[in-house]
Predict the 3D structure of the following.
Amino acid sequence: MRLGSPHRWLAVLHGEARRTTSTRLWWLLLLPVLLLALAMSLFGGLMTLFAPAASDTSAILVLTGLASVLSMTAVVGAAFGALLAAGEYRHRTITLAFLTGSRLQVLAAKAVVAAVVAGGYGLVVAVLGPLLGGAVLGGQDLPSWGEVLVLGAVGVLVCALWGVLGVALGTLVPNQPGAVALAVGWLMVGENLLAAALQAGDSAAGEPSVFARLTAFLPGNAGDVALYEVPVGAVGAGGSSVLEFLAGVSAPPPGWVAVLVLAAWTAAAVAVAAVVGGRRDIT
């Protein structure tokens, strides 16, 4: 299989970026991201209002709220990727897209654009969340900039990977509503149900079973483990149990391993999408 010249790859990428920025899709999905950032900023304030003792752990609350919102932002990134890929089939523009480059080049261009946009969503939350949270909490203890930067970087990476995963799903399921429902439904419902089934029969006091340990290696849970590791690290003793609770997993691996797991899922999904999309009849 010929990969083509770098000039052709750049031309296809440039064309995909222009098509994406000329539509309202990317900034319409930015609106729920902004609402999530606002919700995160109110989280710490409401906690300290209704539970004054929580002011002693306001820094951990801000980090936990930011990690939670970044996790939800990844869902928006996945939806964007699915819409971006499946939209070509819905609007019957996929044939025109393939005139600008090979199917592999078009898939790669969409993956790059989705990664940038979804990562941008994560960046917006990572920047606005702590700023608004700091304004709401006033002079209370806030997390260090180092902790915020680490969590923000992890959040951008997780969102970007889910944007690419969304493109793979949109390529595999060319029906646009179906692709979005699959991406969002899996992250919000499907994976939680599967994790609960894998953990069924395990006791809280005993060692988790082999099946229960697999929950940390599901794609959505892997991203959550990577995100929640930062605020959990500030807890100290008992942090592992807190991480298991927040991410909904058993025996979570280190955060960097979780990122690699999510990256492996992403690479596998793109590879399958390249094969299936390359053989699909679009006439």
About this structure: The two ends are 22 Å apart (CA to CA). Residues 6-279 form one domain.
